[in-house]
Hints:
Layout: E1 13-16, E2 19-23, E3 34-37, H1 40-48, H2 55-72, H3 76-87, H4 94-108, H5 115-144, E4 150-153, H6 168-178, E5 182-186, H7 193-204, E6 209-212, H8 217-222, E7 228-231, E8 235-237, E9 242-245, H9 248-258, E10 262-265, E11 271-272, H10 289-292, E12 293-294, E13 297-298, E14 311-314, E15 321-324, E16 327-329, H11 334-341, E17 349-350
Parallel strand pairs: 4-5, 4-7, 5-6, 7-10, 8-11, 10-15, 16-17
Antiparallel strand pairs: 1-2, 2-3, 8-9, 9-14, 12-13, 15-16
Amino acid sequence: MAVSESSLPVAALCWRDGCLQILDQTLLPAAEQWVALHDAASAAGAIGRLAIRGAPNIGITAAYAMAMQTALTPDDPAVAEAGRVLCAARPTAVNLAWAVARMQTAILAVDVAERPAVARAEAEAIHAAEDAASAAIALLGADLLAGSRRILTHCNTGTLACGGTGSALAVVSELAQRGPISVLSCETRPLLQGARLTIWELRRGAIPHELLVDGAAAGLIRRGEVDAVIVGCDRVAANGDAANKVGTYAHALAAHAAGIPFVVAGPTSTIDASIATGEEIVIEERDADEVRHAGGALLTSPDTPCRNPAFDVTPAELITALVTERGVASPPTRESVLGLLATPFGQRRDA
């Protein structure tokens, strides 16, 4: 019996048979292939090659990786080394280091014999918290953007990137349940996460959508064809500056010029209170071949020098609101952002 795309569940990872299974996102949408991860090294490799991606899901993966590694080697040096290997996989998304630090604290607090069970429970708690955060973000973001029907987004921020139904794309999904909307998805060069992954999720959600090249977004915004822009985030500084997939800053500038909302959505695990501004965020530079190629085809001379920053930083003054599971910072400032971190989940704070 044929199954429609919209009826198929979307998942990025699951715990099964004592290991973490991930959907290899480098193969989507052409193939849906699950890969088993068994330890910190295999998880770090999957994170580095973007088989699993999205700041929250990187954190969840790191948590399970620490649990798997602890089941194999629970002594102090092994726990420290597992954390080092995982944190080195990708530098920009703070969720990775956040999850590793939380796991190490829980693991090292108990005797060696207890560590595997404690690590597994802590990883599951992190996963559950990220799922709950997604549900709250969806509701708060949809309330904020009520009345916006033409939404532009960048990169991928759904289940493939986050716990639950996502961050920015969770808001989009909630808006679609409340009334008719249409989504403009930027392709997101160089690795086309928008074209490959966001469209894949929008199709399954039966949400009307169109794909556009990244460079077309500003012109459409200026022409009045977009009501709001919503994106995710990989790290938010204490003052509200937000790092996200490269190309985001240009959309923020266009939205500001047009006077439409530019909203950033993400769990509080993405806020890094240890850095004052976005100037301190380390921007990952990836392999030049990602720019030279698209879909396996060479686009230019094979020795063309390239720059390939994976992220850019949008200043807080261009952000209309930061939507988290603990409330909305609108506009994001040091006071409002740190206030979110101080608010217990379930006690909404808006500023």
